[in-house]
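Hello Y.,

Per our agreement to keep a running log of every chain we model this quarter, I'm adding this entry. I've kept the format consistent with earlier entries: sequence first, then predicted structure.
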Amino acid sequence: MSAQDFTISPQLGRDLERTRQRSLIVGLVALAACVAGYVSQPDQFFRSYLFSYLFYLGLTLGCLALLMLQYLSGGAWGIVIRRITEAATRTIPWLAALFIPILIGIPRLYIWSHDDAVKADPLLQHKHLYLNVPGFYARAVFYFAGWYLFAHLLNKWSHEQDTEGRDPSARRLQLLSGPGLMFYGFSITFAAVDWAMSLSPHWYSTIYGLLFLAGQGLSALSFCIALLVILSDKGGPLEGVIGPSHFHDIGKLLFAFTMLWAYFSFSQLLIIWAGNLTKEIPWYMERLKGGWQWVGILLVVFHFALPFALLLSRTLKRAGRTLVRVAALVIFMRFVDLFWLIAPDASKGGLSVHWMDILAPIGIGGLWLAMFLFQLRKWPLLPVRDPHLAEAIAQGGGGGSSH
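Predicted structure for the entry above:
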């Protein structure tokens, strides 16, 4: 099995290229419409762009974290999604470029960037040492540089292992992944504070960064499940390779991250509500009125309760076509969750969904998918020289039975 050729066939390459071109066109058209909307509603444009961007950045960084987690822990689940996660991490330079509109929109998004507001508010003066525009720029550069460095080395050494079969690469990858996960955890926490929590600078939560960490894991796992099902479907390049046990393992991880996200979300609410502090409660009060409470209920039911109940089933987790429906639901609810976190701070008049809230995710998503598919085509769909590949495939139990 390890000698099997997993390079992308010419037909699959043509199919991926067609999909890439269509994604690129759709993305450019949707973003062009949003740019046109910017002329009349710049505040709305930046709000829609921010929550949309945070989803795709989270999906990419979640893949980076899964990649490093697998190198540290081992397991067949990580080997079969390695090429997917690696391709996703290679989009980081493009995501850095897509971050530029957020830098441009700082005055529209963040009240702490206005000198007059800072002078009139003692709390903003106290936080100004951290919340200031030069610091915002510098930290963003540091985050992206660190993410790119770890992604570059992980991809470089993995490619060397593929082309040269060098066993020492596996050890280097493992040694890099430990510090990489530490950097990921800290950088995500600070980035969440900078880009999302500081939208409401009077409010704070010590668990806020962990919410983003768990959400990114959910996004990445759901995306990997969806792509694995497509690639292992009848006639797919991984048919007969990806089996029920692979889906079962990834489904268990999806179940764990679902509980983790719910635990962090409820813990934050419980601690703040019980504390009843005047600087913390208003953030939740804004999200429990004006229609936003219904979004909160949707999150409880469809982001936690329903996926939790469905993923309890061993049979469901082993059936790729059924599991992908749960993954699709989770991806949709990740958008809803980020919208619920971001939008109320800018829209004080109650729940409203603008057309840019729909087109911005489509626009950024079209560009991101085009970049991802371009990267996915470069390497074989499985790490052909990984010493554990044959064992990982054998543990799948036969891909055909998963459907």
